[in-house]
Automatic annotation (TrEMBL):
The keyword Glycoprotein does not apply. PROSITE patterns: THIOREDOXIN_1, THIOREDOXIN_2. It comes from Nocardiopsis mangrovi. This is Thioredoxin. SUPFAM superfamilies: Thioredoxin-like. CDD domains: TRX_family (cd02947). The gene is trxA.
Length: 128
């Protein structure tokens, strides 16, 4: 599957209609972004069952700000409308493949239970 361009107009729809989305936040002037682009594209060709998307942080400043993107490239993985990974930095091919494997293996029911538990405890509970 080809990599799709995400904008504020298609972002929510893309995440709502797909269970597993990898998002590359990037900019054309960013050297590490250009280095990561072929790695991301290769993975998109190898994992046709997943959605690979790119957000141009220059054109989509509202989206980048909404996700508090402070450093690019930032890779975000969303499963079942839940962000399960978001880290800046260009991964090598092996690193991206390992991340995809780990994301596939996650038990999303357990992830949701953990999120509910943290929300129930409320802010500041971790410091107590």
């Amino acid at each position: 599957m080809a990599t799709i361009e995400l904008t504020k107009d298609n972002f929510n729809e893309t995440l709502a209609e797909n269970d597993f989305v990898l998002i590359d936040f990037w900019a054309s002037w960013c050297g590490p972004c250009r280095q990561f682009a072929p790695v991301f594209e290769t993975a998109s060709e190898q994992h046709e069952d997943l959605v690979f998307a790119k957000v141009d942080t220059e054109d989509q400043q509202e989206l980048a700000a909404g996700f508090e993107i402070r450093s690019i490239p930032t890779l975000m993985v969303v499963r079942d409308k839940t962000v399960i990974y978001s880290q800046p930095g260009a991964l090598p091919q092996e690193g991206l493949e390992d991340l995809i494997r780990q994301a596939r293996e996650l038990d999303m029911d357990e992830v949701r239970k953990e999120i509910e538990k943290q929300q129930a405890e409320g802010p500041g509970a971790a410091e107590a």
